[in-house]
């Protein structure tokens, strides 16, 4: 799967900019899943199957699987998505950042072991830390730019030669690093003015936007700040607000209802 082509296709076919983050916390699972050895896979699978027609991507966060020795369930989940919902790209949220042979191993992990269509990367070790991922030309490389957490300002807002550090990242990625047309940037919904600024710097490059829902980002300002003139360009992520909307055995249907309402709210402002 070519990530950027698949993303453009699913934006049109599903008429959605919504991404669901898969952050499985067994402590929050419905009672009927508690203590099942495959609970993480089963919880996420039900959410995926209930919402696949409403999203442009799924984004499993690797730490939620690795912390519970459930990498095998992550592999099974991504395989399930590819088989049952082959048009929907999978972003592995890993935020890796290292150089040389270590970065090569992380790229193998994301794209060969887990078969992800895209991966999130920390760019702060520079271009050579990104190049092993760029070698996978059909895959998406999504680099942190202006993150949704309050502490992001500690570094990302520093002045570097007359521009903010996050602006330098946006410019470097869009003008110099994106040699194969496979890159995207992370900019949080909690900072709509920075979304707008990044959009002016990068043109139509996709933006992965976390921070709506539980983190409090506003949908209308996010969409107005970040959409391209054609009404796409955004991967707007919601995780906890959708995943844990329901507590009983019908949790997946409840999650679908919240996902549909979120998708509709995003589309209303496009």
UniProtKB/TrEMBL annotation:
It catalyses: orotidine 5'-phosphate + H(+) = UMP + CO2. It comes from the Bacteria. The keyword Cell wall biogenesis/degradation does not apply. It comes from Candidatus Accumulibacter cognatus. Keywords: Decarboxylase, Lyase, Pyrimidine biosynthesis. This is Orotidine 5'-phosphate decarboxylase. Residues 17-255 form the Orotidine 5'-phosphate decarboxylase domain. Pathway: Pyrimidine metabolism; UMP biosynthesis via de novo pathway; UMP from orotate: step 2/2. The active site is at residue 95. GO terms for biological process: 'de novo' pyrimidine nucleobase biosynthetic process; 'de novo' UMP biosynthetic process. Belongs to the OMP decarboxylase family. Type 2 subfamily. GO terms for molecular function: orotidine-5'-phosphate decarboxylase activity.
């Amino acid at each position: 799967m070519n990530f950027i082509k698949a993303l453009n296709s699913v934006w049109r076919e599903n008429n959605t900019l919504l991404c669901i983050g898969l952050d499985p916390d067994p402590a929050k699972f419905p009672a009927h899943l508690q203590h099942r050895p495959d609970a993480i896979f089963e919880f996420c699978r039900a959410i995926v199957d209930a919402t696949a027609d409403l999203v442009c991507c799924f984004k499993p966060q690797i730490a939620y699987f690795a912390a519970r020795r459930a990498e095998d369930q992550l592999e099974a989940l991504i395989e399930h998505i590819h088989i049952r919902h082959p048009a929907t790209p999978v972003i592995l949220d890993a935020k890796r950042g290292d150089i040389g042979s270590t970065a090569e191993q992380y790229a193998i992990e994301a794209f060969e072991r887990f078969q992800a269509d895209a991966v999130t990367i920390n760019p702060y070790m520079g271009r050579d830390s990104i190049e092993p991922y760029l070698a996978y030309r059909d895959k998406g490389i999504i680099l942190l730019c202006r993150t949704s957490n309050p502490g992001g300002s500690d570094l990302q807002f520093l002045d570097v030669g007359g521009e903010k550090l996050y602006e330098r990242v946006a410019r470097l990625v869009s003008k110099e690093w994106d040699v194969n047309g496979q890159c995207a940037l992370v900019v949080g919904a909690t900072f709509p003015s920075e979304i707008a600024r990044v959009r002016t710097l990068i043109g139509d490059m996709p933006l992965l936007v976390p921070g709506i829902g539980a983190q409090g980002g506003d949908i209308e300002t996010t969409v107005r700040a970040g959409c391209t003139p054609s009404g796409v360009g955004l991967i707007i992520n919601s995780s906890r607000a959708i995943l844990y909307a329901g507590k009983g055995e019908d949790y997946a249907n409840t999650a679908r209802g919240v996902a549909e309402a979120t998708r509709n709210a995003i589309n209303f402002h496009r």
